Amino acid sequence: MSLVAKRPLPEPTQTIQDSAPQLLSSSLSTARIYKRIRLTARKIVGTPTSILAYVNLLEDTTNSNDALQVLIKISEAMLFDESEFPEAIRLLVEHFRREPESAVRVKVLALFGDLATDTGIDCPQLIDEVIALLKGETSAKVISQGLQALERIGKACNPTVAYVNKMVFFAKSKLFSPSHNVQRHAILLLGEFVLISDAEKESLELIGKYTDSPDARVRAQAFRSMLTLGERGVVLPSSLYARACGALTDDYECVRKEALHMIYELGVRHPEQNIKLPESEQEIRLIDDAFGKVCNALCDLSMHIRTLAAELLGGMTMVSDEFLHQTLDKKLMSNMRKKKSLHERNAEHFTSGEWSSGKKWADDAPKEMVNADSVSLMASGACGALVQGLEDEFLEVRTASVNSMCKLALRNPPFAVTSLDFLVDMFNDEIEEVRLRAIYSLTAISKHIILREDQLETMLSSLEDYSVEVREGLHLMLGACKVSTKACLSLVVQKVLDVLLKYPEDRLSTFGCMQRVGQKHPEICMSLTPQLLQDHPFFDSAERDVEDPSYVCILIMLFNAAQHLPPMLSLFPETIVKHYAYLRDTMPNFVPLLNLGGQSTELTLTRSTGSRQFLETLLNNIQLAYSAPQARQALLKTAQENLDRLAEIDPSFSGTANFTAVFLGTQLLMEQLQIATTGQPTKAPLKDCLGQLIRQCLKLQNLFSSLTLEDELLVKQMCLRASALNLVLVVKDRSQSALAPCQLLLHIAADASSFLQENSSLVADSFTSAILTKLASIGDPRPGRVFREILPVVQAAAPVAIPRINTNIKMCKARILEPSESSFNSDNVIKVTAGLIAAVPLVAELENLQETQRQDVRLKIKYPDQNVHVIVPRKKDLKKIMTEQGESQSHWRLRTTVLLSHGVWTEASPVDISICLSVRPGSELELCKPVKVHFAPKPVKRGI
Q1: Mean pLDDT of 224-230
Q2: ∠ CA 577-581-584 to the nearest 5 degrees?
């Protein structure tokens, strides 16, 4: 007997989290020999409910309302014994047959779908029962629910071909139902489960016929099911194109939406196929015609359709250049006559000197009549489409248009040059998100463009934007783009320095901008060097302040330009040599290594010769000390210190060094605690050592990414050893309950066994195999019995195997940029009235943070009286860092405000602010060293 999904939470009387923090949370094993581990772990937290008890209550009901309430209770419970399912299904089927109320029958079918999704019920039997029940059903609601239940059952269990054919045959028989809801669910079922071979023969055509259904929901579902078949591998024929084009004029938005998707798919799948234009013998590429149809959808009345059309344009990169460039052409045509502006018409009247006298018929008719045959289809389709999208009243449409323009420009350099002016115009949009998208899009296509002076004026005017993200985005864009002339670069430098005086908090972003500007314009920087340094050819200039941010920006730009153009070094005065040495030491990430002042070489460690060789030697020495416990422990302590130092010296190898250091530190703690299990005295308190061991295991599980399967197995085995040691020491101590450590051990063992079965190529060590075998043999795993079984294994455990060198490992860590300890020292104190709030801006960068860990980021504030506050930052405060290559995948920037408040202090004291990762309630792993901010709450002044 086994249990199935939705295990209830532990009862409040248990203290699992207080006595032994949970090392990991994962699904339990489903293997045969470890099912008993899973079973007994759940016996502690709850007893399964008998589904037959509920069904028997259903049999005793006297009206449909009571029956419905019982069915709702069944769907809410979902903790049943699988052996009772066949009998329960039989009783539910019998009740279905005699139930007169359609709502109850609908709930029974919905319950079948829930059971298939949330439990391990026999799905083939359930499919047969549902189909048999629906064959004699007359209610359209019940049939619709039955078709939906069949879809859920099929997705949950992957039925065989025979059962797939049963569901498909039944769905086809219901296509002729007068109910639109039945037809819609039948078409949905066909799209999900019809065999690919059958779909290409007849099912695709059968579904296509329902695109002409009188009901809009059926028409939309027909297109959606055909697209689903295309996603499953069915070849969508180009003959569907005409049908999709006709649906673009449908009165209902849902139909137009699916038809637009179909046109896009057919255009991308058959780009080179030629089709005839309506009422003409002229042929055109399918992708070009589809592009025009999608552009036409940008004039749709629905905002959602316009947004979708703007998004789809970005994926149609195979369109012809003439069609693509027409999307930015503002010339419109109406009644075969070119439209001109009022200014153009008045100018023509003025230059001609003639006015209509009214005596001659049509003497004021338009002069430039256009032949209808010479009009290209582009003028009515793609003409001005993207321009219209950029000028739309809804920000969703404008944002999608900017993104699509960027995607198309990346594939077509001439189009990138043409679209430059339109993207620059979007810098003045009223919505910040649109401005940011335009800035990032221009950054992405910067390799195809060179900025002119008139374009730079519009861009630089946006540098004074109130939004710090817009300013940083413009810094990134200016560093990525190239300018054409010396005047352009001078304009950029002057504007950037002026804005820096207004927004001094943009210091680091401005430094990065000037660094990239210098790298991309070494020749122009060389011509501006005397002007920027104010170096007179005959007279000595006064030495400028090296702490001035504007002067530092200029030096950073010139030093980076000199890296690519060494003759620039001869233009630097003598004072620049001293300033270079200072900036090279204080800002090595902005100032490159130059042959200036005798500093031409630098000691570096590389993976192949330095860091890797050192780590290999270190691990070999630890392995050689396998049989000498005292020497091994001393070597482990020394190795930790050396690896921490290696992580600081070689940033490219820091992840591997940190992972190995934490792993070795965990092993050292484990060997010390293993001695305590034999009754020998230890120097450190056991409780403190156990707490450190658990934190080390949490670090191994949560702070490192890009681990191999072997590394993951080592971490799981380490956690299993730690949980076994925890249980043994807690039982020996007898000062607290061992129930929670026992349950924790069972959970971790089940997870390890599941991992080993999913990866059969991996082999567990002797300790893991012995522990799993012992736990599987225990029928009733109470803490005392588990302790007696695993004690000899724990006492005789050999050291864990040393991990192999994996240079791809990355460690999650943070770096607080603001506030810095230099800006909030003992002379610069935050003063506030006691009890009120002081707001401290915080800017930090987080590296190698996974998407799933985003919601676990916390701010930790520690006051001098040892009070600790853990704050959850807002989601919008944590965003991915933008680079010239696009959005970073694992690097984030946290920009928020820390609120400080306290009672009266006699003098200013430091408050620690750090960034943590919450791995479980009450356990936070610090990602960086805390920054100290001097805070002084003053007493309330009693005035008049």
Answers
A1: 92
A2: 130
